[in-house]
Amino acid sequence: MEILFIITFFIQNIIYLKYIVSKIVSLKISVKYIYLLGILNVFSGLIWLTLLPQSIFRAYLFLTLFYCIEICMFYKGSFLAKISIGLIMIIHLICISTIIVSIISLIIGESMNYIINNFMLLTLTRIIAFVLCIFIMFLFLKIIPTKYWKIITLNHKETKIFLALEISGILCLIAGAFIYNEEILIIEHVFQELILGLIWFIVEYIGIFIIIGFDILEEHKIHLENKLQLDKIYKNALIKKSDVVIQVNCQTGAVISYIFKGLLNENSINRLYDNVILELIDTQIHPNDRAKTKVLASFGYMLQAIEQGINQYSYEYRFCEKHTSNYEWFKVDVIIDKDNILDKITALVMILNIQPEKDLLFKAQIDALSHLYNKTTTQTLIQNCLHQEQHGVLFMIDVDNFKSVNDKLGHDKGDAVIEDVAQELTHIFNKNDIIGRVGGDEFMVFLKAKLDKVDIRLKATEICKALNKTYSHNNLDVTISASIGIVNTSNNIKTFQELYCVADKALYNSKNNGKNTFTIYNSNLSHFTPPPLKNRLKLLNFLEYKNYFRA
After folding, report:
1. pTM for this one?
2. Measured in whole angstroms, how far is the alpha carbon of residue 285 from the centre of its chain?
3. How far apart are CA 150 and CA 160, in angstroms?
4. Secondary structure in 3-state letters for 67-132
């Protein structure tokens, strides 16, 4: 029994010194010396155990002084803080021991004096008390974060309150220990001691929770004030930036606030968000964008985002102001804020006109003269199609005699030629095809279709016919035409660079063979049988179709 007492008391002291005291105040010595302190505390415990039967007051006075002196010597911090921490162990031992002795007294039907004078029973009560102390300490270390335990050491006012509470409890329990002198079992006295131990144990932790609770409340108050201040600043900034700002209660789906161009729209407050937003979708959003916008703008979609842990998403649509027919692009940003303190979820819906940005993006992608895609954008769009494994045919088109137009007829007429060529290509090809101007007189078209779905020869013939024109100025005439190189995507040609290189070679083959013609590159002649033509070129991997549309 003595060995079990020593082991239990040693473990309790190691846990108390290493995992509780060391987390609240800093050690002056190395952590490894805690085990030496634990051994020293075991000897003090044995002395305490021998003093208990003689005098409970002296026994607990000895243990109190021992722990307080030990913590003051080996730990850093203010004097009051260290004393209050030293008394934590004493208040636990007295309260729990009082409760355990009272219960055993009632169970065996013997007085409390009998228990403390019986070495085996006394040792057993101490072992049970130590085990309970270990369990309770670990429990409260898990429940209460370390930073809140440190409050007692940082705030002198709260330290004094906590210390006064501990001293009051210890004195009250020791003062009531006269019952231990009664050799006859008096059940009323035992119950009195049991209740006293329970009450002071509860009061001790109520005091801890109250002291910590005040700090938590203060912390939450500061956090809430800061959050409200930041929210106010943030919302003001968003209101200034956005055309429309709608705040939605995600628990009810009602509109909390609706600000249109800086002014509060009171008619929309407390209405269901879906009803407010659907009025705009059904009447003023572009027909092609309505179906998608109805889904993304709905309250149901917002709830799905919350369930999936998504706190922000965006979408765009074209919107037309009332009494106008001009659609402009708008972007909607939805930010969902979950406030755990207030147990509230709100969504901020910000609608901003992004037509100026779209215009800038359009200008960055479009060639100013031809109003077709510029070289960079054309290449990027074709690359995207190839990455998506879309089949297609690339046309490289060069305007024949364009230099003569500039030299003989002037650059203004040259600009007009470029505009005419761009317009003709736009008429020949579908709006889903990629049409771009990639050089001064060079154009590129990527027709999005499989080879068996389109007549390439017919398209090439249309281009040659449409671009074969004569321009005049000051009695000078210049006839332009088109030299075309054509290549389709295949297993051997998958990247833009490969397509471009082959189409460029095919183009120069057309140039070298009289212009106003097209050359189709075929990666596998055995699988392609061209129609009979007068001037078929006997070149490996190239088939040329000459078309004469000259006047």
Report:
1. 0.44
2. 31
3. 14
4. HHHHHHHHECCCHHHHHHHHHHHHHHHHHHHHHHHHHHHHHHCCCHHHHHHCHHHHHHHHHHHHHH
User: For all residues of the chain together, what is the average pLDDT?
Assistant: 80
pLDDT value of residue 468: 94
Name the residue with higher pLDDT: 75 or 481: 481
Percentage helix, strand, coil for the chain under 3-state DSSP, each rounded to 5: 60, 20, 20
Q: Please state at what angle helix 2-15 crosses helix 119-143, rounded to 10 degrees.
A: 20
- Angle between helical axes of 34-51 and 56-74 (0-180°, round to 10): 170
Residue whose token pair is 């929770």 = 209
What is d(CA 395, CA 489) in angstroms, rounded to the nearest whole number? 11
Question: d(Cα 244, Cα 246) in Å, to the nearest integer?
Answer: 7
Which residues contact residue 142 at a Cβ distance below 8 angstroms, ignoring those fewer than 6 apart? none
What does the block give as tokens for 453?
């779905």
Question: If DSSP codes are grouped into helix, strand and coil, which group holds residue 23?
Answer: helix
DSSP secondary structure letters along 347-374: EEEEEEE-HHHHHHHHHHHB-TTT-SB-
Residue 114 to residue 449: CA distance in whole angstroms: 102
Phi-psi region of 244 (alpha: psi -120 to 50; beta: other; left: phi over 0): beta
307-360 per-position pLDDT tens digit: 888 888 999 988 887 767 788 888 888 888 877 666 788 888 888 888 888 777
Give the pLDDT of residue 549. Answer: 32
3-state secondary structure of 410: coil
The answer to whether 26 and 76 have CB atoms below 8 angstroms apart is: yes
Euclidean distance between CA atoms 268 and 293, whole angstroms = 20
DSSP secondary structure letter of residue 479: E
Lowest mean pLDDT among 139-148, 351-360, 393-402, 508-517: 139-148
Q: Which residues contact 222 (CB under 8 A, 6 or more apart)?
A: none
Q: How far apart are CA 47 and CA 216, in angstroms?
A: 41
Percentage of residues in the chain having pLDDT higher than 90: 18
Q: What is the mean pLDDT of residues 151-164?
A: 71
Q: What is the DSSP string of 238-280?
A: HHHH-SEEEEEETTT-BEEEEEETTEE-GGGTTSBHHHHHHHH
Place of tokens 């761009």: 422
Per-residue pLDDT band for 536 (boundaries 50, 70, 90) equals: very low
Half-sphere exposure of residue 237, counting CA atoms within 13 Å on the CB side?
Answer: 6
- Tokens (6 digits) for 519: 């050359």
φ, ψ of residue 326 in degrees (nearest 5): -100, 115
